[in-house]
Amino acid sequence: MLTTFRITAVLEGISYLMLFAISMPLKYWAGIREPNIYIGYAHGALFIAYLLFAIIFWMEKKWTIKRLFILVLASLLPFGTFYMDKKYLKPLQSEQ
């Protein structure tokens, strides 16, 4: 479960950056809308999966509500999921 959550977090972060760095400039500066549609769908699905994993993982580990807030906030900030993975999830991987 932890490995799946970590992979989802990294993929969600990559899709978020792709949305801002690639598809939004193409849409608004070049008038090319198609990449925004596909990257947007992928990001939306990964965002929902990330949030579901975050809630399940939070309940499983019995963390505080503050930790859940950090997990959710990380999904809203660029590079947030990468930081969250390194700070909170990677140390758990080494414990197993």
TrEMBL record:
InterPro entries per record: DUF3817_TM (IPR023845)
Keyword Nucleotide-binding tagged: no
Transmembrane segment boundaries: 6-26, 38-59, 65-84
A cellular component annotation (GO) from this entry: plasma membrane
Domain of life, source organism: Bacteria
Topology in membrane: Multi-pass membrane protein
Entry-linked Pfam families: DUF3817
Keyword set, alphabetical order: Cell membrane, Membrane, Transmembrane, Transmembrane helix
Residue ranges annotated for the DUF3817 domain, each copy included: 2-88
Keyword Membrane annotated: yes
Subcellular location: Cell membrane
Signal peptide: none
NCBIfam families according to UniProt: integ_memb_HG
Protein name per the record: DUF3817 domain-containing protein
Lineage, uppermost ranks: Bacteria, Pseudomonadati, Bacteroidota, Flavobacteriia, Flavobacteriales
